[in-house]
Here is the input.
Amino acid sequence: MDALAGAITAFQADFMKKSKGMSPTREAVPLASTDFMPLDSSALGLLHEFAKSNPIYFQWHDAEFSGVPCRVYEGDINEYWLGSIKHDSGYQPFYPTWILSAYALALASKKLGFEQVVDIGSGDGRIAYCARVAGLGAHGIEIDENLVMLQDAVAKATGVDFGARCADATRFDYSTLGLTRPVFFISGLPEMGEMLAHSAISRILKAPELKDRAGFAFMGTHVQRKYARDFSSWGWGKVMGEYGLKVEQVVTLPTHWTADQAQGTPYIFAKTAL
Here is the structure.
């Protein structure tokens, strides 16, 4: 998993250095598995189907980065970003991760033994979609109705049902999902996502069937914070300490908001300390 994440990060760095696209949103998906980035061929096909079916992308062309033939998808998220910020300020506006990163996160979830992915603040559904591609159960909780309609359109076009729901994650009854060994992805960087994290985690851990089985994946930051916990490097120390969560794995991957930076976004996988 670390090797794949490293390959994706290096691939993204070469992409940002050489890509000539002018669109505000752009990313690349390999056209085939290579030694540099070995990926399941059928999964790759479904990643391309997601991009081609997603209305945020309006054009694409083929190119090569890090010796990997790929397709570059260009688009604009502004319409959906503007819609997402109308909700309570405790929620993170819509900023997607890379499709490749979403798939790597799904594989990491599977390797850690999780059986379902629940994406809280699921945006256009790419993490939940990739979870299904990786053979996991998937559910997406999204408060913005326009983004849920986008997810429904992608699910219909691709034939991949990734459980899109229009709901407020701070009020949702997670016991209705029939989860066995889930990992919950918490949308939002620590500076903006703590309100959502507190509300969702407290509801999840109150469910007896989830208390000792649930894992959490937080989007982090490499900026040091002043929390006096072992998690200070990622900014989630206060939240994780309050709920007795311990770090299982950290995976750093490209996102759209770190596309022009030397470091990607660290995703911190954690679970309750038994």
In short: Residues 222-233 have pLDDT under 50 and may be disordered.
